[in-house]
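Two proteins were folded this term; both appear here.
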Amino acid sequence: MRSLSRFLEQHAEIPGVRIVDGQTVVMGGLIKKSEKKFTTKFQFLANFQWLEEFFQSNGISVEKRAVIIFVNVELTDPAGKPYRDR
């Protein structure tokens, strides 16, 4: 699995954002979507062609992965004191 910083370098399109001290910015998006087709059946009964459709099922399994990043901004002066306490 790729690291988050490498992923953001390749996929992020972040426009300029202005926020106030103490606000939270939320970034997120879909990372991966995969679809898999599957067939389940009763082995013995599905081997007979005329019974096959009654003892098997077909479907699609969908998996989605997403990332959500919360960034809380707190501005500080060089001494480490928060700006909002001034």
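Next, the second protein.
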Amino acid sequence: MPRPTVAQLTYGSCTVIFSTLAMLLLSQTSSGPGIAVIVVAAVALGVLVAMTVPTPKSSRTLVAHSVPSNSAGPPGSRPEPVAVSAPAAAPVAVPVPVSVPASVPVSVAAPEPVREHTAP
């Protein structure tokens, strides 16, 4: 199951909050079971709204509109869309682990740091 988008979380949360307030104000209920029913209905409505928010669709095909010419049709008509394939992605360099033999002893390669005072 995909994770919810920011728009789905926002719309669902706002729906729950505002629908709960509206139903509580309109029903003027003060009993526990009445408030529980309103809260359950508001959460169900919020989930419904969050599920119906359109999600962005990833598309690998770009659509380019053709340039209208004078003989294309009547003035004001829309040109037909033309499918254009997306350019290929550049190759990505992946680091490869390489073992390097130690030709210098560790005691020489990593000396103790120099601790000198710097000029003020």
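The chain has a mean pLDDT of 76. Strands lie at 61-65, 81-85. These notes refer to the second protein only.
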